[in-house]
From TrEMBL:
A Pfam family: dsrm
Highest taxon of the lineage: Bacteria
Function: Digests double-stranded RNA. Involved in the processing of primary rRNA transcript to yield the immediate precursors to the large and small rRNAs (23S and 16S). Processes some mRNAs, and tRNAs when they are encoded in the rRNA operon. Processes pre-crRNA and tracrRNA of type II CRISPR loci if present in the organism.
Subunit structure: Homodimer.
DRBM domain span: 161-231
Name of the protein this chain belongs to: Ribonuclease 3
Keyword tRNA processing among record annotations: yes
Organism from which the protein derives: Weissella kandleri
The encoding gene: rnc
Amino acid sequence: MFSELQTEIEARYDIHFDDLSLLEEALTQANYINEHPNYHGRDYQRLEFLGDAIMQQSSAVYLFKRYPDWDEGRLTELRILMVQTRSFAALSRELHLDHYVQLGHGEEISGARNRDSLLEDLWEAFIGALYLDQGQDAVMNLLEQVFFSKIDTGFYDRFVDYKSKLQELLQKNGTVDINYQKISEEQIENNEQIFTVAVQLNGKQLAVGEGKSTKDAEKVAARRAYKDLTMDK
């Protein structure tokens, strides 16, 4: 099974494990071992510990070098946004780690294979295993492909509550009237709809957003308004 994953990640990301037992350890949950008394391998928890530290350090170094003009606050904010549960869970799914993890029967039935908290652990354990097997250069090569490259795509924006951030920004000097108003609702192909919403401050329009629901459109409008207001700060 793990040789199949090895073949897949080697073809997609040019990553090769010399020691497949590390890859197996990274994808084995404790409950699986408890249910298989004759299994002699370890669960992923030690590798998860290592991978967590590696992700924190690698992200900090990358952002420090990429944004030489940013202060500590901005660097920390982006790092926290990147190094978090939903981000790591998405990366686990991208590498298909969820397909290969060895789970206990009860965990399988409860849907753990799709649980973000488990997938976060798997990503960190995988990074820990890769570091031990191939070193930091191999880790950075993978992160360049699947992690750091997402900064410019808006991938991490989906994890930000921009409506709350915008409200906090606009109300820092007192109460103001923040309103989201639907401008239009357009039918497109496949019977889908696109909603357009404007966010207003005391009746003045700040930004407009589009989405497949009014809620999604409001999020886009809030993100655009927040970024416009903080662009030079």
